[in-house]
Each structure stands twice: as C-alpha cells, then as structure tokens.
Predict the structure.
Amino acid sequence: MTMTPEEFVEAIGTGNIIHNSGDLFGDHLRSVQRVLKEWGEDEEVQLAGLFHSIYGTEGFQDFQLSFDRRDDIKKLIGERAEFCAFCNCVMDRTTLDRTLSDSSGHHSINARPDVAGGAHIPLTDSQFKDLITVHVADWLEQVQREAAKVNERHGWSKPGDAWGYRRHAYRTMAEMLGGSALKCYDDVFSHEPKETRHLHQEATPKLDAPIVPKIYVQ
C-alpha cells in the first residue's frame, strides 16, 4: 500500500524530534502545509510546505533526510514540490535575500557549501514565487513561538529577539506575494511588541552541533 505524503512524513520519524519553534517537527511541517492551504495555494505548493525542511535547512539541521531519497520524494509529491522543498533546504539564505531585488527572469540562489558545494541554482519566475511563498509561510507559522523564548544557537539571547530575524527580507517577500501572504504577515507582526521593532538580524548564524543528535534518515 502506497503511503500518502502525510503518512510518509510521520513514518520517517518527524514526530520524534523537537523543532526550533518548540513544536514537534512533524507538527510544524503539517502546520506550514495548513497555512499554505489557508492562503489558497495549490496542492503542489502545499506539499512543498509539508516537505519544506525535510533535508535540513540553514536554520534547522536536527533532522536530515538523505539526498539519496530525492527521487523517492519526487515520486511522492511531484518534481515541482520537491524542487521547491530542496531549494528551501539547501539554499544560503543570504542569496535568496539578495535575489529579491533582481528583475523578472533573473532570480537565482546558491546552495550552502556544506550541502551542495555552493552550487548556483537558477530559478524561473514561477519557481522563485513557489520558494518565497513556502519560505514566508514557514517563518510566519513559527515566529511568535520563537520570539517567546531564547535560542542561543540563532543569536537570540532574550525573548523577542527572533522578531528581528531577516526582517527586511521577509517583509519584502510578503509584499511581493501580496494577498493572503501579506495579510498573514501583517496579522502575525501586529503581535510584535514595540520594544523589539528596531531589531534587525540580517543573516542566519552558523549553527553549532545540534542540541540533540540529529536524525539522518537514509
């Protein structure tokens, strides 16, 4: 019997590890999928949300599905969704932020040297839109929980610091998307206290070893 994408995510152990946001990793994945559904995104983008950090990301490396499984994931959720999730996982986020100012037809990102040798990844306009849609949904789903606590690994030494993480980039992405994404951004950030609205952390700090042994799934 073939598993659904949701069953697969559960079967590989995402319910056994805590995500940065404090939720179980699997719960966070499903919540991002739900946000994208609420925004009216199509099923492929919703599935990209469900798998958005399945290979590990610049900001979360405590769970990493092996890249050897990419063909399996493509068969499960489709090439479009898998490519979006793959990009979200491997990218150097500063290169995403930089390409926000590029003109239509000229968007690209670089992979991080530690996962894909810093490979240059050109994006079509539709691939770029998919990526920023999923990337913004991921952050908006968790930022309030992140901001409620300390996360020294990300340079957030006191509650509230997370609000400033790549603030300009996330706002720019939300404005580029407009509609439900921008409304959600405004709704979420309306809860930010005035005393943190000056904070700006423009890059993701290099993560040390995971707090708990990461799950590297073949």
Summary: The radius of gyration is 16 Å. Strands lie at 63-65, 108-110, 120-122, 215-217.
